[in-house]
Structures
1.
Amino acid sequence: MNVAVLPGDGIGPEIIAQARRVLDKLGLKLQFQEAPVGGTAYEKHGDPLPAATLRVAKDADAVLFGAVGDPRYDKLERAKRPEQAILGLRKELGLFANLRPARVHPELAAASALKPEVVSGLDILIVRELTGDIYFGQPKGIRNKAGRHGHEREGFDTMLYSESEVRRIARLAFEAARKRNRRVCSVDKANVLETSQLWRDVVSAEAKDFGDIELTHMYVDNCAMQLVRNPKQFDVIVTGNMFGDILSDEASMLTGSIGMLPSAALDEQGKGLYEPIHGTAPDIAGKGVANPLATILSAALMLRYSLHQPQAAERIEKAVSRVLQSGLRTADIYTEGTRKVGTKEMGDAVVAAL
């Protein structure tokens, strides 16, 4: 089983190192090949996604990804910015489905921004379409136009979905729901956007093949409100690229910290890229205080979905739960009465729990 390891920028190398230690402890026959990506790659090769890195990712059975991005590169042309690396990987690898689970560990209910009784027992899966929508639709750009007060610039992007793109993400969401509580909420903005009306029509049509699944529809603004008001009403949420990007980050804060949430981005054959949903956190990079649990849990998702090692994945998840039960916390999930530890100490604890 060949795994491409792309640590990236900021805290990426620190958290990836702990995930590697956990994977090594399992005793599986894993081969790792590391390659630069993001700002690190730009510094070395003048490109956030060098051809050699892309080859490593394409040749692997799965990709374990850290994070990319740094304010230092914000003035570069967009094509050279670190964030283009993850967009390029999604496109080149055909990673159309982003699975973002938001689960509240009982021990972390008090760390949520909401009352414990609102989030206790929360277990949501957000299925985000990843290769369409306004992020990839053409045309897009910034142009000059004649305005009332002379020439001015205007920016434009195109929101675009085809029936086939909506159909495949809808079917994946319905299939995921069959392994959970058999409820899917499709989120759109069909009262305003033609793209969303197409989305709603196609999802509704596909639901006819899944008579055992309860399908509901919700506008994205209402969904954002309901995630705060009553998040446990949801089981599986399926939505487009931009809405999913926003809603999944909102859902992450229900769990206590964005540092706890893993994610999987899958192609049609189940090959995937696995990463924590948080960013590079340059303000704490190199300080040894970042939370590695989202990355460790992403490695568990990798074992489950791409490497077909569900028992090993479950071992990791149980080890993380045991560590949380013991009272160890990184700074982002620390509460009174628990013990604050750093990145390596948290990794040590998960390895010991295994």
2.
Amino acid sequence: MTPTVWMGVAILNLVTGTIVHGAGAENRLILLHAVQEALKNNPEIHVLKYKLQSAHARSDQATYLEDPEIAIQFGGVPFSQPTSLIRSDTNSIGIRQRFPFFGKLSLKEKIAVQEAKVVEQELRTKEREIMAMAKIAYADLFMAQRAVEILREQLEIIRTIIGATEARYRVGRVTQQDVFKAQLEQSQILSQLIVAEEEADIAAVKLNTLMYRPPRTPILVPPDIAVGDSTVNLAALDDMALMSRPELRGAEQEIQRAEAAYELADRNRKYPDFMLGWDYMRMPTEMQKDRYAAMMTITIPFSPWTAGKRTFEVEESLAEMRVARSNREAIKNMTLGQVGAAEARAQAAKRSLELYREGLLTQAEISFNSALSAYQAGRVEFVNLLEAQRALREARMGYYKASVSFMQNLAELERAVGRELQ
């Protein structure tokens, strides 16, 4: 077999053959498992889960009254014998209990419940964020590993070309310049391979961190990923986002909390609280020694020296309510903007991916095979073969980049909408 024929067979086997991967499919991390592991183990999610437990416990406390008080009194103890309590005229023991005005306790409960709901939406927001970050990091790792594979394949191709070109140079069929060009191309591929391997390591560290693994844990992903499709129109996405996005739902819960706080502040300004008490009294010096006393105290919220405090509490809660409503509108505006931008990027990436699927990859392979045949027959210069080889490499890289871009933009769109779209 001549060097030219051997070079053609070897290159065709590398270009059209099946890629052999170093690990079995069972050892590769699929996207679904990466997302599930991130949701299960990420410490930022754990922080909000514990915060939610605390908020629920706080809301459960809100239904209870304050602790009762026990009052023990010794009355009429002579100054001449201040420590002789048995010489007191009146001994009493009683119990006191504070009661808020009707409706205040239920408002406190409502405020606490709404606060717990706000924290719950914070947790849902963080989960959506971690899911999107995991998908994006996974896509980066996928792209970097595919780039490494492609560059290694191209390196084998260029080494085959160098060997055949050197053989042809020795018999005087090509110039030494062709050998130098092939060696230069090999150096450029080696440089790109170093960068790609570095990017793969960085992407693995990011994904491991999201999954709360040791950062340098090796990760292998499948050789291809199923890129989904999004057929929901923009108007439907807007409505979906306004209903599903956790930040918006949390903003609604915050408005309800602020409204309940305003109502409670208004009640505190208008209505008093009470304290009820009952005492058992023992009077040693009296004929009727056993007696009892009942008492009730009432706060005066509209007293001249406290009314201003209550008024400012109402103003504070009213301002907080306005802040909550404005915050909801700001989040709504931000959401619609993010949905529109992410949807546009996802659609652009989808069209680019379709172009590669519909012919760019095939055309690049045909062009390379044609240039290879023409070079073997001596009809084209060596530089034409190198250009066809670069075009094939760029087409394969472009296909994976378009796939990853669509996957990442779809993840951003899902984060903006607040739910899965596939």
3.
Amino acid sequence: MRVLSCLVIAGLAALAIASVAAAHSLLLESTPAAGSTLTAAPRELRLRFNNRIEKPLSKVRLLDSRGAAQTVELTRDGVPPDWLRAPLPALGAGRWRVEWQVLSTDGHVVSGRFEFQIAP
């Protein structure tokens, strides 16, 4: 009976840990895609996550190869609850880094970054 109780408690603990980890927002896809080389500058940035995110508390930064930031304003109207979308200014050729930070539905702040390149 004692072994069974330990197994039940261990199983419940594993389920609790798995459900907390599953609630963290993960970036599923982006446009432009991470690591991509584009022949033309993108007009829009789109990020899709594995669950709903708190958009008013989300941030995106776009940096050029020197680390200079470009202004990025997130669009909130007409965007699905698991997406971030922002129009982009005219971008020149070179390497660009996207840094994002979102608030997951479980209350945890999650961040990440990726790069893309615009060919000359």
4.
Amino acid sequence: MINIAVLPGDGIGPEVTAEAIACLEILSAEHDLDLHFTEYDFGGIAIDRHGDPLPSETLEACRNSAAVLLGAVGGEQWSKLPIPPEQGLLRLRKELGLFANLRPARVLSGLQDVSPLRPDISRDADILVVRELTGGIYFGERTSEADVASDLCTYNREEIERIAHVAFRQARHRRRKVTSVDKANVLATSRLWREIVMEIAAQYPDVELDHMYVDACAMALVTNPRRFDVILTENLFGDILSDELSVIGGSIGLLGSASIGERGPGLFEPIHGSAPQIAGLNIANPAGAITSGVMMLDELGLGGSGRLIADALDKALHEGCRTHDLGGRATCTEFGARVRQNLEVGLGQYGVFRELIAMNRGCCG
């Protein structure tokens, strides 16, 4: 049995997570994957019920699971609390040792119209952001007084080395190019970052490395996105750039992500927020959550099966099934149902293909 801890969270989180799990359950049943899903309180809903965005029961369940599937956290009603929901997410990443965040974005062939960029600019863009997740300014010492505040940004050699290795290994499975993004003309942390990334690059002579300042990268993402393959960057820059990157595919609702460490369970979540303004309206886009489920299967060594869900999702978009964020009228549940319909067709075709292979082996045996 493969135990998956499910954290639906807040806002649209439960809606999109439900659609992703429904797809995974169909696949699990047909391919005998033995996936088992258990929900736990997390985020704002956990504050309401337990007084803590990350209750001890939830943390322990995540530690003991093969993977964690997250919806979204946060909302205005909890934003001014001493420990808001987002702090629970930062703590969960830290407790599980999830230092690498992988955020892929691409423009599907034939769907350039979804992107706000001109088709000649967006066509065939396919980028993976590898973001360092547990260091930098988000985890630095903070001070806050009436008229002055500060946030400390710190990185050490080990943190930079391990995230650089992730980026170069990922590039070996793609187009073998890493663009390291920093602000080395201003920041001491960026100068250290660039120096260490260059050292690590020497261990990957088959992968090309170049460097860009973060402001130049932000411009290039929307003027020449095809120049990028893997973008390697620190926590704050990665957060901003990966959200900007979402426009290339047409909507932040399309993108999933994986947060991984050296061992233990990974955390898989759509990159969008909780969007409380549309929660309960059944209009959220579940594609990011479904994609996160596919990334989870890949990390669990079940990427071949996960490809069937990815293909079903791509087919739904090509067929014109689009949610409100993509200019369409499909509801969250309608979009999920279309993906599952395509998945069942794909599973049927896959089954026939396997039977033909078995028959041919029997004939040749």
